[in-house]
Design goal:
The chain has 396 residues and is of the alpha/beta class. Helix content is 51%, strand content 11%.
């Protein structure tokens, strides 16, 4: 019987994956931090490790480095399951020797079992008899329904997944209440130390939401909370980037998470795999920066430097989101925005100004011309990326 080690500090997520692997016929152990994971590897001697990156004591990258430094575990398959928006950590994981790096928001436990089966180059073995219950403890936003270790039929598996998602969505009011309390602590933080501590706590809770949403296969919340997780980590790592603009984006994201919990099963994603995003800015560097920021969350866009050309393009093509500079030759962003609003196809299209003009008068003009939001230059890449997710994922 092949053995799987799950190194994951979110106990609810770990329990669900554990039961999935048990149901597929594997022997499974769980470690809740990197230090424990390294100890379990030596005693349990797994055939494959499923590894999270953001963990207490020793993070996933360091676990990988220590494993690869030992000749005995040089070729042990290690599947990293983490937030793909934390690109630098994912890149470090690849360099440290990860076998596969997979985004939590894009991979369900069922898909993970298939990936593991492929990596181990064998068909899933026959399911074993029921074993000991899944590990418990820790604080979770929702309680996972009890799942048998014995593999169920496809119909029963689907029913369990529906029950799991229902439990997750019912936890929404409690989850949002916790997030709002932590957000208020961030906003009212007195002194850098207190504010950073609050950001760290909010980051951990948002990370749990992202993991749980991925497990229950609720992509809108998984994707949005993953973006917020990455933004909060950047604010924690570089506190000089904490600003009124970035904190407003964090608050807007919590608001949208609440709306997504409420819409629940009736939600129809507004964002397609290839949303239409247009960027209009006469500055080449600024355009490239926006493209880079959007690519961090898998969003492609069209960029133009000429406002007139942009207006003509919008007359013939529909876009889901538009980013505009203000100070452009020939036609400034405010005038362009008013003309865009005159087009029936873009009467309600979200428009976000990205500009160095952030005084009160400019903010007032952006709203009066029909703009939905404003980001100050120079901007954080992750803030702009999260802002794009905010408007693309809003229930229509």
């Amino acid at each position: 019987m092949k053995k799987i080690l799950i190194i994951e500090d979110d106990r609810v997520v770990a329990s669900i994956y554990r039961n999935k692997f048990l149901g597929a016929g594997y022997k499974v152990e769980v470690a809740v931090d990197g230090e424990e994971g390294l100890a379990v590897v030596k005693n349990f001697r797994p055939d494959l490790v499923q590894l999270d990156l953001m963990m207490p004591k020793i993070n996933g990258v360091e676990v990988l480095k220590k494993l690869r430094a030992d000749p005995e575990w040089k070729s042990l398959p290690v599947v990293v399951l983490s937030n793909s928006y934390l690109m630098h950590m994912v890149e470090e994981a690849w360099r440290a020797g990860a076998t596969r790096c997979i985004a939590k928001s894009d991979c369900s436990p069922r898909q993970m079992v298939e990936i593991v089966g492929t990596l181990l180059a064998e068909e899933a073995p026959a399911p074993p008899p029921p074993t000991s219950p899944a590990p418990t403890g820790g604080t979770a936003f929702f309680r996972a329904p009890t799942v048998p270790a014995v593999a169920s039929s496809g119909e029963a598996d689907a029913a369990f997944q529906m029950e799991l998602r229902k439990s997750f969505l019912e936890s929404g009011p409690q989850t949002i209440g916790v997030l709002r309390t932590l957000l208020q602590n961030v906003l009212k933080g007195e002194g850098d130390t207190a504010r950073l501590a609050s950001i760290s706590e909010l980051f951990r809770k948002v990370r749990s939401v992202a993991s749980n949403a991925a497990v229950v296969e609720y992509a809108p919340i998984a994707r949005l909370s993953s973006g917020l997780e990455a933004l909060l980590k950047e604010l924690y790592d570089k506190p000089q980037n904490i600003s009124a603009s970035s904190l407003r984006t964090v608050a807007q994201t919590v608001d949208l998470l609440e709306a997504l919990y409420k819409t629940g099963q009736n939600y129809q994603a507004a964002v397609s795999s290839t949303p239409g995003v247009l960027v209009v800015d006469d500055d080449l560097i600024a355009r490239r920066a926006i493209v880079y920021a959007l690519e961090k969350v898998g969003i492609k866009c069209i960029t133009l430097e000429d406002p007139v050309a942009a207006l003509n393009m919008m007359a013939e093509n529909r876009f889901d989101l538009i980013f505009l500079d203000v100070d452009m030759p020939g036609m400034d962003g405010f005038e362009l925005c008013r003309k865009i609003r005159a087009q029936p196809s873009h009467e309600k299209t979200p428009i976000v100004f990205v500009t160095a003009l952030t005084d009160f008068e400019s903010r007032a003009k952006s709203a009066l011309s029909g703009g939905n939001d404003l980001i100050a230059k120079p901007f954080l890449f992750m803030e702009l990326a999260v802002k794009a997710l905010l408007y693309l994922l809003r229930p229509r």
